[in-house]
Amino acid sequence: xxxxxxxxxxxxxxxxxxxxxxxxxxxxxxxxxxxxxxxxxxxxxxxxxxxxxxxxxxxxxxxxxxxxxxxxxxxxxxxxxxxxxxxxxxxxxxxxxxxxxxxxxxxxxxxxxxxxxxxxxxxxxxxxxxxxxxxxxxxxxxxxxxxxxxxxxxxxxxxxxxxxx
Length: 165
Prior knowledge:
The structure is a single chain. The protein is mainly alpha-helical and 165 residues long. Helix content is 70%, strand content 4%. It is built from eight helices and two strands, in the order αααααααββα. A two-stranded antiparallel sheet has the order 1-2. A hairpin with a 7-residue loop joins strand 1 and strand 2. Helix 1 packs antiparallel against helix 6, helix 3 packs antiparallel against helix 4 and helix 3 packs parallel to helix 6.
């Protein structure tokens, strides 16, 4: 089961890396609107979020039943996407960090047992309630990466549509 998770994350991040690799720095740093993230911010968010969720998984394995999670105002999440934070990151550095995230996810989940994956704990986010550890992997790692991969594609479509005007 965990190999399926690892493969899914790796494939999504590889597609993200391939996309970013083929873009100009101007495109990567282009902001569709005041309320939307740049591609650089999206990738920086993934670089921060996935290790965060792996850490939550590791804590749940160590202390079953412990509460887990965060909200959108979590300081680590906000710091990772601040314009001044992402402005200080080079595209090459970003790509290396995305590669490292794959390794972090693999190391954090590859040895989980079915028993550990099915162990439940309550989230600090009431929208999630009590969930099995596998939910964190499914929803907050795999679906999360896929959602942001789609967000990158939407940014590129918006830029293309703007350029066509």
